[in-house]
């Protein structure tokens, strides 16, 4: 019997990273238990009837370019457990007030056409990343400080990624291309004038062309169900409805403290759970960890389709609503400094276009959230509705029902969303490079056997499971070293 096959592990939290960590540890032969505070698993991967019976809405995560691109998820062949990716005709659209719209899709020719005189320039910029997308994701889904296997690919990406999004967008001369790129960069939820804010935009745009922005059939909950099925097939156990607020609570799950504990929580959660056992240097870093702007979400049930002015937008799974590039930059800067903009940047999802089974009796689910200040307790419903109406006159008349969740409610729903920050941490240049603290092993908590695997660790937000996989690999490496040391002593 190997040391790993006799070892045990507990994973706290069943988001994509927690479940990925659990699967990887179970693959290595550990006896693994996942503990989830909610009555169902998934973290950000949940789908519910929030408005009208039979109409299914994604609660948090919705479109999954990083999920379909994830090296670890691909290795698991989750289609064996019913996971099916579905693509809209157009992956991403960004409408403008003049009726034009830029689109990003796996059909690069369609993108070229939508971008007019910037089309060829757009293709030249993104073709290298598209051509080497597999090696690129292998690199960027690791901690920034690692020995690259594809240094030329990573180096080329890194040079462009280091730029502020405002500077990178100057490569384009016309409104659609500038807005399309700036909207993708705005997924960083940061002041786009800051260094490294191009990174998210470059990666997500390349993903739109290389693998698309698909949805999971039946909703994002399907990803969680497939991961749980894989985990249980490996002998793992899932316990729901059990909050863990202290390491001593693990005693009610196992007779002894497990050899490995992996926390799929924000640094604030780790401070609470591990408490004084954290080394002072880790505690100080976690206390100084910065959380970013928040999300205000509204789910609509509408009769029929959104009456977009631009026909391309009617076929897009994801729509960015923010107007021109300068307008997006202004809104994101205000949000970052704590001011609610009159016209916030809005991300809208029409998942039913690819997955019509989410609709019922002609009523379709619409997913939308705005970037708002950290901890915002107001109601942004009208501002979001006006942003949609701006590019789709008559939308308001098609609303049958709606449901909202503000940043305070986000934090109550999922403690990882501190102040409503669904990214589990500000995407500042420092925290993109050193997340969650300055160390060569960002997953280890400085205590033997304790690890962090949430979106607060590399590679950050998204449903890709790579933070969980990386944390599990770190834990397995330490187990092997410990077993080797014990063997030599014996």
UniProtKB/TrEMBL annotation:
Q: Which InterPro entries match?
A: FAD/NAD-bd_sf
Pfam families in the record, alphabetically? NAD_binding_8
Q: Which domain of life is it from?
A: Bacteria
Question: How is this protein named in the record?
Answer: Phytoene dehydrogenase-related protein
Species annotation: Branchiibius hedensis
